[in-house]
Amino acid sequence: MLVLYGDFNNWFAAFAFWVFKYYGFKDVRIINGGRKKWLIEDRLITKEIPQYPKGNFIAVAETDDNIRTSHTWFVLILGYPNVKNYDGSWTEWGNMINNPVEK
Question: Domain spans of the chain?
Answer without folding.
Answer: 2-95
